[in-house]
Amino acid sequence: MVFMPIVEKYRSKVQEVVLGATRAQGGTRDFTVTVGGEAALPFLHYEGQIPHRPLIGMEIWDTAPADWPACFAPYFADSFRDPAVWAQRCVSGYGADLVVLHLKSADPDLLDTSPEHCAAVVSKVLNAVGCPLVVLGCGKPEKDNLVLPAVAEAAAGENLLLGLAEQNNYKSLTAAAIVYKHTLIAQSPIDINICKQLNILITEMNLPAGRIVIDPTTAALGYGLEYGYSIMERVRIGALQGDAMLSMPMIGNIGAEVWRTREATAPAEENPGWGEQHDRGILWEATTAAALLQAGLDIVVLRHPEAVRLIRQNITELMGGRGV
Amino acid sequence: MFIIGERINGSFQDIARAIREQDPRPVQAWVRKQEAAGARYLDLNTGPAAREPLKAMRWLVEVAQEASTLSLSLDSSNYEVIEAGLEVCRRPALINSVPAEEPKMQCVFPLAKKYKAAVIGLTMNERGIPKDAESRLALAMELVLAADSCGLSPDDLYLDPLVLPCNVGQNHGPEVMQTLRQIKLLSNPPPRTVVGLSNISQGTGNRQLINRTFAVMAVACGLDAAIADATDGQLMEAVATARIIMNLDIYCDSYVELYRKQNTVHWI
Fold it and tell me: Residue B36, SS3?
């Protein structure tokens, strides 16, 4: 008997979002990338077209991270102090599709660097790599409202993916994205209702829906991954059923969540039964990412080069061998 | 559930005069009003008094299309009038309507196929409107089978169980609700359902309240579309809310505004 898969028909598809801008488009990137466009649930190629593979972004900081475990040192130790070198290493050494620059130094509780300093760091990283760039603020809204508009202006026309816009803090970043031609990450706290509402608020300011990427927020494996997973799944099903305000591609900040869990970082001596920390941490990150790719993530943001390698292989296989 | 805006009808004096004088302004004003209020289709009816109904329907279609990109529902019992309209429709239209009468079905379904239109099928025949759900469903099945034999998918068939005014046909109410639910079991994919909403309140003293209460109850029974006045703001709010409660739309604080808007904004 021939196996006949049950094929779902969907009304709609995910928005396509382009990141980066080449010189001809007003930026300086060597190439742009496109995410989204799926007309089916993740990797169900027989149900609808999946025109773009999910992308891997590698997270870098603008200051040497004090709390990253020692298993990163062999890969990055010499580049931690220079985000430009770190970015190059991610792209040419480890095959990152995107560099995700986290402007940690701006945090008032850390180095409290100035918006001008942050804008200069972004320009430096843009000069160092040719791929599209994702830029995240320090995470403190008052400071990010000063930093991110300055970054947006300094990188005008580059079509950065800028974040984070949140329900109570989206106006200045949205305005900056409109004026300086960037794309926005709209983050909601594992809450589909706020996710949708925020997209409405942002589009009401006249940023097109095609310039928004959703960050539905997630937790690492063992810390509530399933909540993030089910929200992403509902967002994606909503998009396919024609809900325009949930139809944007999704990004997941996985590395940052995973590498603060005990399971990823505790040394083997603490729990000998858990095995070596190096392998365990990498697998924790890769497993979290692999699960969330199945929920519909379009961009996974990772830290460890070995996790990147595993996930790239996973994506290639799921896309039917289409190259990474 | 979406709304097929019903106001562009030659039974109204302003539309009748517009048709007579070939003045597009009153028609287009209603087109824009219904669209802004959240209608997804616009129902066009030349009215009984139009002297040249074929010409009038063509004119209404062209005038409506100048002002809006909404799809059109062509409302007439004269199929020559419907075809005249279909010939000039730029987007797939809705034929309103056909009863479960063999000769009429054999005329309308091939027409729908030819113009890629959907059809509203009425669960009535030469003997009139049935009293109970079972007889309505039997006619619904006849409509599904006739459509299928003409190559029309049940997706493109909107079955109207025919509601009567609640003051005179009170016993029809529960039968209509039951019919709406059971129509979904007739085929796979299931046929769609539609009602002429304002029929429920004809001759009553509290029309809008009755209309929107019925709309909400019908959404709970799976209703897909209603021919109604989209400019009735409270109706639209009630329908948007019913859609949330039935898990047809994902909740967000602006769900009412979004329901009004998403019928007209084409994001992709």
Answer: helix
